[in-house]
Write a structure and sequence with these properties.
Radius of gyration of chain A: 22 Å
Radius of gyration of chain B: 24 Å
Number of helices of chain A: 10
Oligomer: heterodimer
Helix content of chain B: over 70%
CATH superfamily of the largest domain in chain A: Metalloproteases ("zincins"), catalytic domain
Number of domains of chain B: 1
Strand content of chain B: under 5%
Largest sheet of chain B: none
Structural class of chain B: mainly alpha
Number of strands of chain A: 4
Structural class of chain A: alpha+beta
CATH class of the largest domain in chain A: Alpha Beta
Protein backbone atom coordinates (compact mmCIF):
# COMPACT_ATOMS: atom_id res chain seq x y z
CA UNK A 1 0.00 0.00 0.00
CA UNK A 2 1.16 3.51 -0.68
CA UNK A 3 1.85 5.92 2.15
CA UNK A 4 -1.47 7.75 2.23
CA UNK A 5 -3.48 4.57 1.83
CA UNK A 6 -1.59 3.13 4.82
CA UNK A 7 -2.30 6.19 6.93
CA UNK A 8 -6.01 6.02 6.11
CA UNK A 9 -6.20 2.26 6.67
CA UNK A 10 -4.50 2.54 10.06
CA UNK A 11 -6.81 5.33 11.16
CA UNK A 12 -9.87 3.29 10.17
CA UNK A 13 -8.52 0.34 12.10
CA UNK A 14 -8.05 2.50 15.20
CA UNK A 15 -11.74 3.42 15.08
CA UNK A 16 -12.76 -0.22 14.88
CA UNK A 17 -10.48 -1.18 17.78
CA UNK A 18 -11.54 1.74 19.95
CA UNK A 19 -15.21 0.88 19.31
CA UNK A 20 -14.63 -2.76 20.26
CA UNK A 21 -12.78 -1.61 23.36
CA UNK A 22 -15.57 0.74 24.46
CA UNK A 23 -18.22 -1.94 23.82
CA UNK A 24 -16.22 -4.29 25.98
CA UNK A 25 -16.03 -1.64 28.68
CA UNK A 26 -19.79 -1.09 28.58
CA UNK A 27 -20.43 -4.85 28.65
CA UNK A 28 -18.20 -5.27 31.71
CA UNK A 29 -20.00 -2.39 33.42
CA UNK A 30 -23.35 -4.04 32.78
CA UNK A 31 -22.06 -7.44 33.88
CA UNK A 32 -20.74 -5.90 37.08
CA UNK A 33 -24.19 -4.42 37.71
CA UNK A 34 -25.83 -7.80 37.21
CA UNK A 35 -23.32 -9.51 39.48
CA UNK A 36 -23.55 -6.88 42.20
CA UNK A 37 -27.29 -6.54 42.38
CA UNK A 38 -29.17 -7.45 39.23
CA UNK A 39 -29.12 -3.92 37.79
CA UNK A 40 -26.96 -3.42 34.69
CA UNK A 41 -27.63 0.36 34.73
CA UNK A 42 -26.08 0.80 38.16
CA UNK A 43 -23.07 -1.12 36.89
CA UNK A 44 -22.78 1.18 33.89
CA UNK A 45 -22.82 4.25 36.11
CA UNK A 46 -20.19 2.77 38.46
CA UNK A 47 -18.01 1.83 35.46
CA UNK A 48 -18.36 5.28 33.92
CA UNK A 49 -17.53 7.10 37.15
CA UNK A 50 -14.55 4.84 37.89
CA UNK A 51 -13.36 5.14 34.28
CA UNK A 52 -13.52 8.93 34.24
CA UNK A 53 -11.75 9.27 37.60
CA UNK A 54 -9.02 6.82 36.63
CA UNK A 55 -8.43 8.30 33.18
CA UNK A 56 -8.27 11.82 34.62
CA UNK A 57 -5.80 10.70 37.28
CA UNK A 58 -3.52 8.88 34.86
CA UNK A 59 -3.57 11.46 32.07
CA UNK A 60 -2.53 14.13 34.56
CA UNK A 61 0.87 12.53 34.96
CA UNK A 62 3.19 15.28 33.78
CA UNK A 63 5.64 14.94 30.93
CA UNK A 64 8.49 15.72 33.32
CA UNK A 65 7.49 12.83 35.59
CA UNK A 66 7.54 10.41 32.64
CA UNK A 67 10.94 11.74 31.59
CA UNK A 68 12.30 11.35 35.12
CA UNK A 69 10.98 7.76 35.25
CA UNK A 70 13.13 7.01 32.22
CA UNK A 71 16.12 8.94 33.56
CA UNK A 72 16.06 11.43 30.71
CA UNK A 73 17.74 14.83 31.01
CA UNK A 74 16.49 17.81 29.09
CA UNK A 75 18.48 19.45 26.31
CA UNK A 76 17.68 23.04 27.13
CA UNK A 77 19.20 24.92 24.22
CA UNK A 78 20.24 24.52 20.62
CA UNK A 79 23.97 24.81 21.52
CA UNK A 80 23.97 21.59 23.55
CA UNK A 81 23.16 19.41 20.56
CA UNK A 82 22.44 21.51 17.45
CA UNK A 83 21.72 18.61 15.11
CA UNK A 84 19.19 16.97 17.44
CA UNK A 85 17.58 20.30 18.27
CA UNK A 86 17.32 21.49 14.67
CA UNK A 87 15.96 18.18 13.43
CA UNK A 88 13.19 18.14 16.05
CA UNK A 89 12.36 21.77 15.25
CA UNK A 90 12.24 21.13 11.49
CA UNK A 91 9.98 18.10 11.94
CA UNK A 92 7.62 20.02 14.19
CA UNK A 93 7.43 22.76 11.55
CA UNK A 94 6.48 20.17 8.92
CA UNK A 95 3.83 18.75 11.28
CA UNK A 96 2.52 22.22 12.26
CA UNK A 97 3.16 21.56 15.96
CA UNK A 98 4.81 23.64 18.66
CA UNK A 99 8.36 22.40 19.13
CA UNK A 100 8.41 19.58 21.70
CA UNK A 101 10.98 19.56 24.49
CA UNK A 102 14.07 17.48 23.75
CA UNK A 103 15.57 14.93 26.15
CA UNK A 104 18.55 12.58 26.10
CA UNK A 105 18.82 9.27 28.00
CA UNK A 106 22.32 8.07 28.84
CA UNK A 107 22.07 4.52 27.60
CA UNK A 108 24.07 2.68 24.93
CA UNK A 109 21.04 0.81 23.56
CA UNK A 110 19.54 2.83 20.66
CA UNK A 111 15.91 3.80 21.22
CA UNK A 112 13.56 6.79 21.48
CA UNK A 113 10.13 7.71 22.79
CA UNK A 114 7.62 10.54 22.96
CA UNK A 115 5.58 11.75 25.95
CA UNK A 116 2.95 14.37 26.66
CA UNK A 117 -0.83 14.29 26.57
CA UNK A 118 -1.12 17.29 24.25
CA UNK A 119 1.21 18.74 21.59
CA UNK A 120 1.67 21.80 23.84
CA UNK A 121 3.44 19.85 26.59
CA UNK A 122 4.96 17.11 24.46
CA UNK A 123 8.56 15.93 24.58
CA UNK A 124 10.77 13.51 22.69
CA UNK A 125 13.66 11.56 24.17
CA UNK A 126 16.48 9.68 22.45
CA UNK A 127 19.19 7.51 23.96
CA UNK A 128 22.86 8.36 23.54
CA UNK A 129 23.17 4.98 21.82
CA UNK A 130 20.75 6.13 19.13
CA UNK A 131 22.82 9.26 18.46
CA UNK A 132 26.02 7.21 18.29
CA UNK A 133 24.96 4.21 16.24
CA UNK A 134 22.58 5.70 13.66
CA UNK A 135 23.40 8.11 10.85
CA UNK A 136 21.68 11.48 10.51
CA UNK A 137 18.95 10.35 8.11
CA UNK A 138 18.09 7.42 10.34
CA UNK A 139 17.95 9.63 13.44
CA UNK A 140 15.69 12.01 11.54
CA UNK A 141 13.45 9.07 10.61
CA UNK A 142 13.19 7.97 14.25
CA UNK A 143 12.41 11.52 15.39
CA UNK A 144 9.79 11.81 12.64
CA UNK A 145 8.11 8.68 14.04
CA UNK A 146 8.07 10.30 17.51
CA UNK A 147 6.74 13.63 16.22
CA UNK A 148 4.04 11.65 14.38
CA UNK A 149 3.04 10.07 17.73
CA UNK A 150 2.63 13.58 19.14
CA UNK A 151 0.64 14.72 16.11
CA UNK A 152 -1.66 11.69 16.41
CA UNK A 153 -2.23 12.10 20.19
CA UNK A 154 -0.94 8.56 20.68
CA UNK A 155 0.39 9.07 24.19
CA UNK A 156 -3.07 10.11 25.35
CA UNK A 157 -4.75 7.24 23.52
CA UNK A 158 -2.31 4.68 24.91
CA UNK A 159 -2.52 6.02 28.47
CA UNK A 160 -6.32 6.13 28.37
CA UNK A 161 -6.48 2.56 27.08
CA UNK A 162 -4.16 1.31 29.83
CA UNK A 163 -6.23 3.13 32.46
CA UNK A 164 -9.47 1.57 31.17
CA UNK A 165 -7.86 -1.86 31.17
CA UNK A 166 -7.10 -1.31 34.84
CA UNK A 167 -10.70 -0.27 35.53
CA UNK A 168 -11.98 -3.37 33.73
CA UNK A 169 -9.69 -5.43 35.95
CA UNK A 170 -11.04 -3.76 39.09
CA UNK A 171 -14.68 -4.22 38.01
CA UNK A 172 -14.11 -7.85 37.15
CA UNK A 173 -12.41 -8.57 40.46
CA UNK A 174 -14.98 -6.67 42.51
CA UNK A 175 -17.91 -8.20 40.61
CA UNK A 176 -16.69 -11.73 41.19
CA UNK A 177 -16.15 -11.10 44.91
CA UNK A 178 -19.62 -9.62 45.35
CA UNK A 179 -21.13 -12.55 43.53
CA UNK A 180 -19.22 -14.94 45.79
CA UNK A 181 -20.39 -13.30 48.99
CA UNK A 182 -23.98 -12.68 47.97
CA UNK A 183 -24.43 -15.93 46.06
CA UNK A 184 -26.11 -17.96 48.78
CA UNK A 185 -28.52 -15.24 49.79
CA UNK A 186 -29.48 -14.54 46.21
CA UNK A 187 -30.31 -18.18 45.55
CA UNK A 188 -32.63 -18.38 48.54
CA UNK A 189 -34.45 -15.13 47.75
CA UNK A 190 -34.91 -15.63 44.02
CA UNK A 191 -35.47 -19.34 43.97
CA UNK A 192 -38.84 -19.09 42.22
CA UNK A 193 -37.84 -16.68 39.46
CA UNK A 194 -37.34 -17.90 35.93
CA UNK A 195 -34.43 -19.32 34.04
CA UNK A 196 -33.81 -16.04 32.20
CA UNK A 197 -32.27 -14.55 35.28
CA UNK A 198 -29.92 -17.46 35.73
CA UNK A 199 -28.75 -17.25 32.13
CA UNK A 200 -28.18 -13.52 32.48
CA UNK A 201 -26.12 -14.16 35.59
CA UNK A 202 -24.12 -16.84 33.80
CA UNK A 203 -23.36 -14.48 30.88
CA UNK A 204 -22.25 -11.82 33.37
CA UNK A 205 -19.91 -14.24 35.11
CA UNK A 206 -18.35 -15.40 31.83
CA UNK A 207 -17.90 -11.74 30.80
CA UNK A 208 -16.31 -10.83 34.10
CA UNK A 209 -13.88 -13.74 33.83
CA UNK A 210 -12.87 -13.16 30.21
CA UNK A 211 -12.97 -9.36 30.04
CA UNK A 212 -9.60 -8.51 31.66
CA UNK A 213 -7.71 -10.68 29.17
CA UNK A 214 -9.80 -9.48 26.22
CA UNK A 215 -9.24 -5.86 27.26
CA UNK A 216 -5.46 -6.32 27.37
CA UNK A 217 -5.52 -7.94 23.93
CA UNK A 218 -7.50 -5.08 22.39
CA UNK A 219 -5.33 -2.49 24.14
CA UNK A 220 -2.18 -4.13 22.75
CA UNK A 221 -3.77 -4.27 19.28
CA UNK A 222 -4.39 -0.52 19.53
CA UNK A 223 -0.76 0.00 20.56
CA UNK A 224 0.55 -1.97 17.55
CA UNK A 225 -1.87 -0.23 15.21
CA UNK A 226 -0.64 3.20 16.34
CA UNK A 227 2.98 2.10 15.80
CA UNK A 228 2.18 1.33 12.16
CA UNK A 229 0.41 4.67 11.88
CA UNK A 230 3.37 6.55 13.40
CA UNK A 231 5.69 4.77 10.96
CA UNK A 232 3.54 5.87 8.03
CA UNK A 233 2.97 9.46 9.16
CA UNK A 234 6.60 9.69 10.24
CA UNK A 235 7.68 8.60 6.78
CA UNK A 236 5.49 11.33 5.35
CA UNK A 237 7.06 13.95 7.64
CA UNK A 238 10.69 13.09 6.87
CA UNK A 239 9.94 12.00 3.29
CA UNK A 240 12.34 9.13 3.77
CA UNK A 241 10.70 5.81 4.64
CA UNK A 242 13.94 4.01 3.75
CA UNK A 243 15.85 5.80 6.51
CA UNK A 244 13.23 4.88 9.11
CA UNK A 245 13.30 1.26 7.90
CA UNK A 246 17.07 1.07 8.21
CA UNK A 247 16.91 2.74 11.64
CA UNK A 248 14.46 0.06 12.81
CA UNK A 249 16.75 -2.63 11.47
CA UNK A 250 19.71 -1.21 13.42
CA UNK A 251 17.69 -0.75 16.63
CA UNK A 252 16.31 -4.29 16.46
CA UNK A 253 19.77 -5.73 15.84
CA UNK A 254 20.99 -4.52 19.26
CA UNK A 255 20.18 -7.21 21.85
CA UNK A 256 20.85 -5.08 24.97
CA UNK A 257 17.73 -3.58 26.57
CA UNK A 258 17.51 0.10 27.55
CA UNK A 259 18.33 -0.20 31.25
CA UNK A 260 17.12 3.30 32.02
CA UNK A 261 13.69 2.63 30.53
CA UNK A 262 10.71 2.29 32.85
CA UNK A 263 8.72 -0.87 32.11
CA UNK A 264 5.43 1.03 32.31
CA UNK A 265 6.58 3.28 29.46
CA UNK A 266 7.78 0.46 27.20
CA UNK A 267 4.87 0.85 24.79
CA UNK A 268 5.86 4.47 24.15
CA UNK A 269 9.28 3.57 22.73
CA UNK A 270 9.84 3.24 18.98
CA UNK A 271 10.89 -0.38 19.49
CA UNK A 272 10.44 -2.47 22.64
CA UNK A 273 13.20 -1.24 25.01
CA UNK A 274 12.93 -4.42 27.11
CA UNK A 275 13.85 -6.49 24.03
CA UNK A 276 11.29 -9.10 25.03
CA UNK A 277 11.08 -12.06 22.70
CA UNK A 278 7.36 -11.96 22.07
CA UNK A 279 6.34 -15.61 22.09
CA UNK A 280 2.98 -14.62 20.71
CA UNK A 281 2.36 -11.64 18.47
CA UNK A 282 -0.97 -10.98 20.23
CA UNK A 283 0.81 -10.09 23.46
CA UNK A 284 3.34 -7.66 21.98
CA UNK A 285 3.20 -3.89 22.40
CA UNK A 286 5.01 -3.42 19.10
CA UNK A 287 4.44 -5.06 15.71
CA UNK A 288 7.23 -7.34 14.45
CA UNK A 289 10.10 -5.26 13.07
CA UNK A 290 10.20 -7.25 9.83
CA UNK A 291 6.58 -6.37 9.09
CA UNK A 292 7.14 -2.69 9.90
CA UNK A 293 10.13 -2.60 7.55
CA UNK A 294 8.17 -4.40 4.85
CA UNK A 295 5.38 -1.81 5.05
CA UNK A 296 7.87 1.07 5.01
CA UNK A 297 9.54 -0.36 1.93
CA UNK A 298 6.18 -0.56 0.18
CA UNK A 299 5.84 3.20 0.51
CA UNK A 300 8.92 3.97 -1.53
CA UNK B 1 -48.61 23.39 7.45
CA UNK B 2 -46.57 24.08 10.58
CA UNK B 3 -44.72 20.79 10.11
CA UNK B 4 -43.66 21.71 6.58
CA UNK B 5 -42.57 25.10 7.85
CA UNK B 6 -40.41 23.52 10.53
CA UNK B 7 -38.82 21.21 7.98
CA UNK B 8 -37.98 24.14 5.71
CA UNK B 9 -36.56 26.09 8.63
CA UNK B 10 -34.55 23.07 9.77
CA UNK B 11 -33.06 22.51 6.32
CA UNK B 12 -32.24 26.22 6.04
CA UNK B 13 -30.51 26.15 9.41
CA UNK B 14 -28.47 23.09 8.39
CA UNK B 15 -27.40 24.77 5.16
CA UNK B 16 -26.42 27.91 7.05
CA UNK B 17 -24.36 25.88 9.53
CA UNK B 18 -22.67 24.00 6.71
CA UNK B 19 -21.97 27.27 4.92
CA UNK B 20 -20.37 28.80 8.01
CA UNK B 21 -18.22 25.76 8.70
CA UNK B 22 -16.97 25.62 5.09
CA UNK B 23 -16.25 29.35 5.07
CA UNK B 24 -14.31 29.07 8.33
CA UNK B 25 -12.28 26.11 7.18
CA UNK B 26 -11.38 27.93 3.94
CA UNK B 27 -10.22 30.91 5.99
CA UNK B 28 -8.27 28.63 8.29
CA UNK B 29 -6.49 26.89 5.43
CA UNK B 30 -5.67 30.21 3.79
CA UNK B 31 -4.16 31.43 7.07
CA UNK B 32 -2.22 28.20 7.45
CA UNK B 33 -0.64 28.79 4.04
CA UNK B 34 0.52 32.25 5.17
CA UNK B 35 1.70 30.81 8.46
CA UNK B 36 3.83 28.26 6.59
CA UNK B 37 5.34 31.07 4.54
CA UNK B 38 6.07 33.00 7.75
CA UNK B 39 8.08 29.98 8.93
CA UNK B 40 10.11 30.04 5.72
CA UNK B 41 10.59 33.79 6.09
CA UNK B 42 11.94 33.44 9.63
CA UNK B 43 14.56 30.96 8.43
CA UNK B 44 15.50 33.09 5.40
CA UNK B 45 16.13 36.03 7.73
CA UNK B 46 18.16 33.79 10.02
CA UNK B 47 20.34 32.73 7.08
CA UNK B 48 20.66 36.35 5.98
CA UNK B 49 22.00 37.23 9.45
CA UNK B 50 24.31 34.21 9.74
CA UNK B 51 26.15 34.65 6.42
CA UNK B 52 28.23 37.77 7.29
CA UNK B 53 29.71 35.92 10.31
CA UNK B 54 30.53 32.97 8.14
CA UNK B 55 32.16 35.12 5.48
CA UNK B 56 34.28 36.88 8.11
CA UNK B 57 35.42 33.58 9.58
CA UNK B 58 36.33 32.05 6.24
CA UNK B 59 38.17 35.21 5.12
CA UNK B 60 40.54 34.82 8.03
CA UNK B 61 41.68 31.40 6.83
CA UNK B 62 41.11 31.28 3.10
CA UNK B 63 41.96 34.67 1.63
CA UNK B 64 42.34 33.39 -1.89
CA UNK B 65 38.83 32.05 -2.27
CA UNK B 66 37.25 35.36 -3.27
CA UNK B 67 35.13 33.82 -6.00
CA UNK B 68 33.41 31.31 -3.72
CA UNK B 69 32.81 33.97 -1.07
CA UNK B 70 31.46 36.38 -3.66
CA UNK B 71 28.85 33.88 -4.83
CA UNK B 72 27.67 33.35 -1.28
CA UNK B 73 27.41 37.09 -0.64
CA UNK B 74 25.52 37.73 -3.87
CA UNK B 75 22.95 35.04 -3.18
CA UNK B 76 22.61 36.24 0.42
CA UNK B 77 21.88 39.79 -0.67
CA UNK B 78 18.98 38.66 -2.84
CA UNK B 79 17.51 36.48 -0.08
CA UNK B 80 14.99 38.99 1.25
CA UNK B 81 14.14 40.76 -2.03
CA UNK B 82 11.40 40.07 -4.56
CA UNK B 83 8.52 37.64 -4.52
CA UNK B 84 8.37 34.21 -2.92
CA UNK B 85 9.63 32.40 -6.00
CA UNK B 86 12.61 34.78 -6.32
CA UNK B 87 13.46 34.46 -2.64
CA UNK B 88 13.44 30.67 -2.81
CA UNK B 89 15.46 30.81 -6.03
CA UNK B 90 18.07 32.96 -4.24
CA UNK B 91 18.02 30.55 -1.32
CA UNK B 92 18.67 27.64 -3.60
CA UNK B 93 21.66 29.42 -5.12
CA UNK B 94 22.88 30.24 -1.63
CA UNK B 95 22.67 26.57 -0.66
CA UNK B 96 24.70 25.65 -3.75
CA UNK B 97 27.31 28.34 -3.05
CA UNK B 98 27.53 27.27 0.59
CA UNK B 99 28.23 23.73 -0.50
CA UNK B 100 31.39 24.84 -2.29
CA UNK B 101 32.29 27.07 0.63
CA UNK B 102 31.95 24.26 3.15
CA UNK B 103 34.03 22.07 0.84
CA UNK B 104 36.91 24.51 1.40
CA UNK B 105 37.53 23.06 4.85
CA UNK B 106 39.14 20.05 3.19
CA UNK B 107 41.85 22.34 1.76
CA UNK B 108 42.22 24.42 4.94
CA UNK B 109 42.63 22.22 8.02
CA UNK B 110 42.68 25.25 10.32
CA UNK B 111 39.24 26.21 9.09
CA UNK B 112 38.01 22.67 9.64
CA UNK B 113 39.19 22.79 13.23
CA UNK B 114 37.62 26.20 13.86
CA UNK B 115 34.82 25.79 16.36
CA UNK B 116 32.86 28.84 15.22
CA UNK B 117 32.98 27.64 11.64
CA UNK B 118 31.59 24.23 12.54
CA UNK B 119 28.84 25.82 14.55
CA UNK B 120 27.86 28.12 11.70
CA UNK B 121 27.81 25.20 9.30
CA UNK B 122 25.53 23.26 11.63
CA UNK B 123 23.23 26.28 12.04
CA UNK B 124 23.03 26.95 8.33
CA UNK B 125 22.24 23.32 7.60
CA UNK B 126 19.59 23.48 10.31
CA UNK B 127 17.93 26.49 8.65
CA UNK B 128 18.05 24.69 5.30
CA UNK B 129 16.21 21.70 6.75
CA UNK B 130 13.62 23.92 8.38
CA UNK B 131 13.01 25.73 5.09
CA UNK B 132 12.51 22.36 3.40
CA UNK B 133 10.09 21.33 6.17
CA UNK B 134 8.12 24.57 5.98
CA UNK B 135 7.97 24.33 2.20
CA UNK B 136 6.58 20.82 2.53
CA UNK B 137 3.95 22.13 4.95
CA UNK B 138 3.17 25.04 2.63
CA UNK B 139 2.60 22.81 -0.37
CA UNK B 140 0.59 20.27 1.59
CA UNK B 141 -1.67 23.03 2.89
CA UNK B 142 -2.05 24.58 -0.59
CA UNK B 143 -3.11 21.16 -1.83
CA UNK B 144 -5.78 20.83 0.89
CA UNK B 145 -6.99 24.37 0.25
CA UNK B 146 -7.21 23.97 -3.52
CA UNK B 147 -8.96 20.62 -3.16
CA UNK B 148 -11.59 22.26 -0.98
CA UNK B 149 -11.86 25.11 -3.47
CA UNK B 150 -12.67 22.68 -6.27
CA UNK B 151 -14.78 20.07 -4.49
CA UNK B 152 -18.54 20.19 -4.52
CA UNK B 153 -20.30 21.72 -2.64
CA UNK B 154 -17.58 23.73 -0.87
CA UNK B 155 -16.66 25.27 -4.25
CA UNK B 156 -19.96 27.22 -4.11
CA UNK B 157 -19.02 28.78 -0.77
CA UNK B 158 -15.53 29.53 -2.10
CA UNK B 159 -16.71 31.23 -5.27
CA UNK B 160 -19.40 33.30 -3.53
CA UNK B 161 -16.82 34.67 -1.10
CA UNK B 162 -14.14 35.08 -3.76
CA UNK B 163 -11.49 32.64 -2.49
CA UNK B 164 -8.65 32.39 -5.03
CA UNK B 165 -6.58 29.35 -5.92
CA UNK B 166 -3.19 29.26 -4.20
CA UNK B 167 0.03 28.34 -5.96
CA UNK B 168 2.46 25.72 -4.71
CA UNK B 169 6.12 26.58 -4.20
CA UNK B 170 8.25 24.89 -6.83
CA UNK B 171 10.42 22.02 -5.75
CA UNK B 172 14.08 22.93 -5.46
CA UNK B 173 16.65 21.37 -7.79
CA UNK B 174 17.69 19.01 -4.99
CA UNK B 175 14.19 17.70 -4.51
CA UNK B 176 13.69 17.25 -8.25
CA UNK B 177 16.88 15.23 -8.40
CA UNK B 178 15.78 13.13 -5.45
CA UNK B 179 12.52 12.33 -7.20
CA UNK B 180 14.32 11.27 -10.36
CA UNK B 181 16.53 8.87 -8.42
CA UNK B 182 13.50 7.18 -6.90
CA UNK B 183 11.87 6.05 -10.10
Amino acid sequence: MLLHAQIEANKRKTWVLVTVFLLLFVAVGAAFGVAAGDDPLVGLVVAAVLGVIYVLLVTRTGTQVVMAMNRAREVKSEDKNPFLWNTVEALSIAARLPMPKVYIIDDPSPNAFAAGMTPENAAVAVTTGLLERLNRQEIEGVLAHEVAHIQNYDVRLATTAVALVAVIGILSDLGMRMLWWSGGRRRRQRGREGQGEAILLLVAVVLLILAPLAAVLVQLAISRNREYLADASGAELCRNPGALASALRKIAAVPEPVRAASASCAALYISDPMKRRSWAHLFATHPPVEERIRRLEQMM
Amino acid sequence: MPVALWIVLGVAALIALYWISQYNSLVRLRNWIEEAWAQIDVQLKRRYDLIPNLVETVKGYAKHEQETLQKVIEARNRLLAGGRAEQLEANEQLTGALKSLFALQEAYPDLKAHEGFNKLQEQLEGTENKIAAARQLYNRTVMQYNTKLESFPSNIVASVHGFKRAEMLEASADERRAVRVEF
